[in-house]
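Amino acid chain
________________
===
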Amino acid sequence: MKKTLFRVILGVIAAALVGGCLYLNSLMPIITGYAAKNLASAVFVSERDADDVQALDLNFSFIKYTRNKVDYESKTVTSRFLWAKSVAAYREGYGVTLLRGAKEASAYPLEPMAPIPERLEPGDSALAARLEPLARAFVDDHAYNGTPFAFVVLHKGQIVAERYREGIGPDTRLLSWSMAKSFTNALVGIMSGDGLIDVQAPMDIPQWQSDGRKAITLNDLMQMLSGLEWNENYGNRSDVNLMLHREKDMGLFALNKPLAYEPGTHWYYSSGSTNIVMRYLRGKFSSDEAFLTYIRERLFRPLGIWNACFEPDMSGTPVGSSYLYVTARDYARFGELYLEDGCVEGERILPEGWVRYTTTPASSSAGGYGAFFWLNRNGFRPDVPADMFSCNGHDGQQIYIIPSKDLVVVILGYSPKPDRVIDFNGLLRDIIAEL
């Protein structure tokens, strides 16, 4: 009896050990991939110090135990943890891609865009003087919590506050995280205006034509109403982590998910939805070159953004959910585009009515979400006007657009929840109080 019990206990322990090892092995692409990708982008795109990135951005969970090698000659980062490793490679003009299943990512030669003269000008000097102490308190003294890298405030289209963390400046390209979704919104709008797509029509995705997914529209995806099964939890072996750190074709991974709800009926945030959209948009062009050229000429150039990195996955498609690098002023110009109803200096970039569509609440979102933009109709920021809408990214990246105050506020940095989250409501309240 005792021997039998002992064998049972040993069997349970062995099964638990095997299960634990298998689960840990499944986490390896996430652990090493996150470290390699984010360190490489920070070093080769943002030109930050590698030691600073490892001490701040990578100092959490299993990620802090990775061993990372930065090769400045080949412009790669190799990250190792236990028996696993990941390699991320930088390519000029493209940014960084995690190498999955290949030694390098293919790309056509990308001609650099000529620098575009700065269009943003200093605004009301009296208002700037009033906001200067607030900017210093926020960025230098962390008075609103968090670790901000960049802070820009536009009032009436002009800069009235601007401040940067040491080592970062107006020319530093910084990570968008999910603010990239809002840039994908703009691209959908432009292509819709050009007659290339129909936002309200069911999509012609082959994998969806034999089941209920054939009813999904671009609008469903943009409003997070696709009904596709998805787990957006960044703290475990979730769909979003597997997509970003393991998959060669992120949009394909997401579109192969089955339906969990009828399309158009259930709101649930999904980065996979945005990568399905970006993959779909790419399919309207004959090549990666043609698609990227369209993005540059129809979106970035009119905004005065000349040095963007919209980083692609191994399939060559930009990661529309997460991986855009532009400067803080570029993000401010993007916010101003939506503040001005889709126009830049009187030139219409987005179709007429697109901003109104973008800020129309998605059903079952309780007034909190539009089309790849967050809304304040639900009073999420209680001391901020209800007409505010925003681009929100992981770890505290924000573009706030407040039409009633003619205001755009850009906040970038590393401010993860829950320990260092910024008091965004208090910061916006205090900015508005100075107007």
Summary: The CA atoms of residues 117 and 304 lie 8 Å apart. The mean pLDDT is 94. The domain at 150-433 is CATH 3.40.710.10 (Beta-lactamase). The two ends are 80 Å apart (CA to CA).
